[in-house]
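Appendix B, example 12.
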Amino acid sequence: MTTLADPEPGGRPGDLKRVAALTADLASQGVHGIVLAYVDTAGVARVKTIPTARLEAAVAWGVGMSPVFDTFLADDSVVTTDVLGSPDGDLRLYPDLDHLVPLAGQPGWAWAPVDRITQEGGRHPGCARTFLRRTVTEAADRHGVDFKAAVEIEWAFGLGSAPAGEFVPAVSGPAYGAVRQVELSDCTADLLAACAAQGVDVDQIHPEYAPGQFEISVGALDPVAAADRSVLVRQTIRAVAQRHGLRVSFAPAYLPEGVGNGGHLHLSCWRDGVNLHAGGEGRYGMTAEAESFVAGVLAHLPALTAVTAPSPASHLRLQPSQWAGAFTAWGRETREAAVRIVTGTAGRHDQDANMEVKPVDLAANPYLALGCVIAAGLDGVTAGRALPDEITGDPARYGPDEAAALGVRRLPRSLPEAVEEFRADEVLRTALGPVLADAVSAVRLGEAAAVDGLGPVQVAAAYRWAY
């Protein structure tokens, strides 16, 4: 389970009592350094690293890092808001010991997610991990609901020997084909071994649709731990691939055309150990609360794309008829719908039933994405929203009148359109708080300005190796 307590100067309660033994154990495993990781507003994983011997100091007093990264763009240029983007100030990074793990793909290193607090010991309003943890805690307190979540990870293997900046697929063969699996069997076997050593339970790993593309699906956890796991698994994929002479791209569109990399979210609501997406009297076994939760997510989807599809490259991927979920629609096992209802197979409904949110990619900060999706769903529960009619097939086939009758609308086609929807969505802005909400808007508009006038080929190249 995730640590629910906020860090504070002097250390989280109980951490100092166990850090000495943990440090000794890491040293006995040959761990010399620890990666302290978080994800910025642009979706880029940022790190500080410390020697293992400095873990106790980091647990007690944190590690310094500038708050300016809250308004960094993916190309490391900086935008500003009224309170962020200045070179002034400092924050403290506090590792979560419950999720510290030696990195099997990077011998000599361990990894831990961090929360960021101010030098005075208060919550940093721009910390995405803190935002998600608070959202989950408030959902339990106000609604008696907790969640299970998982993030699908798609990526493309490229040849490490390719010219700088270019992508050359490392494998050939058909989508989902045995050829690809055989060609990269050594690498993917090492990846499975690394995940197992790090305590990551893998459901599937397989070749995907696009050139050089693979996908890994991992077990569900509480939302904060699921977001942590998403960052950890990507770190592991990259490290294992490098040891095999390969590069990986998690970018939404690593090529200018065709199917890109998704980061679909799977989420289910639970109360007292019972899955609210199964065993109810609603459609496909959903309870009334689960239906309203799904309806809330659908209602906020246009604004959510500012968080879940946050890169100019996201909008190369988020196209109709490419299984990206480009319309506000839901359906059971309908992979063109933005929200896919997964019932699971007979005999497993009570454990496996969940909702999949498809217009999400791995440029998204997973903490922001999960927190905002949960806030949207809970708004639906509070308002008692009714779930509209489901769709089957491809919603792109509907004419304007039929689409309007079904509540099917195209999601924003650009970051400025997404920001316009986001700024009008009081539920999401209130959930994030003014500092983080303004950072989301500023960074999205900054990314749009950075590629103004560029074509798809240039946009794909600009973000290919950023995430």
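The radius of gyration is 21 Å. The CA atoms of residues 284 and 434 lie 38 Å apart.
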